Amino acid sequence: MEQSSKKSALSEKDGVNQPQSLSNSSVEVIKQMRRKQPSAQELIDGILAKDKVALSRAITLVESTNPEHLEKANTIIQACLPHANKSIRIGITGVPGVGKSTFIEAFGKHITSLGRKVAVLAVDPSSTISHGSILGDKTRMEELVKDENAFIRPSASGETLGGVARKTRETIILCEACGFDTIIIETVGVGQSETAVHSMVDFFLLLKISGAGDELQGIKRGIMEMADAILINKADGDNIAKAKLAKTEFNRALHLFPAKQSGWIPTAATCSSYTKEGIDTVWKTISDYFELVKTNHYFEEKRQNQNQFWMMETINEQLKSNFYNHPEIIKLLEENKKAVQNDEISPFAAAMNLLKKYFKS
Length: 361
What we know:
It contains 15 helices and seven strands. By secondary structure, it is α/β, with parallel strands linked by helices. The protein is globular, with a radius of gyration of 26 Å. 31% of the residues are buried.
């Protein structure tokens, strides 16, 4: 039977060849740059020259868990230390959904419009199952990320309580050495151990939304006592009246707290990250705070206490790391875990045996 010369309606026509989407020369340049690891001195020079790329690469070294990167990171931090401590550090926290990222973008743009340089260290929550993080803060702050006077660095919280990345303290030093005079630390805001944030910032701002509780909610101890100011966000549209009511309730609650060592009296205010209403007032409040604490010398005293605190934290962290990475402990730990699971030994006795073995070795 003779085959039909007609083509089926389902047959494909020859398409048009698409132009090359990537430049081969550009790809090779990027590959070469990735292969080349800059020395510690090159990164130090870059940071002091206010190069954001060098700053980003140095932060990556600081955050790395690779033991080979530790010495290089410590060299960079030590060289940057004399050029640090010339900024104001602001911690911002609040429950998920309160609008931290949107507020920080509006607030950051206001700060840069005043001629200041702002670095945002955004700590993103890590999954306890996959251990991954989205790190999407740059996407949310699409205007601020394009600002020449701004730098945004998202980091995974890992297993750290309170949503502070393990190396946030060292990252602050690098950002200050790079010329950023305003450091903003955004926490996960899950209500756990926010003391870690408080111990590395000068001003602690708590974001709230209206309808999240009455005045009794406001007088609960904990994070409220640490806050230097409370800001009711999303005060726009139909929510303005509710936000003003929440502001009044929180101001009443704040009067019930003990006086702060700084001599500062915290207040509650409203703002809208969408309309930018109240953003300038927030900066005025923070400026008034720094004027007070620098006059009464509380600023220097708090920084000194924070330095001591982080020395002790670093010792604790290093001891913990050395313990779990010790070859004998790695082997004995699994044996003791099974013994504890089978009720052959109590968890406390097993822990003491492992510690004794570690210190003997």
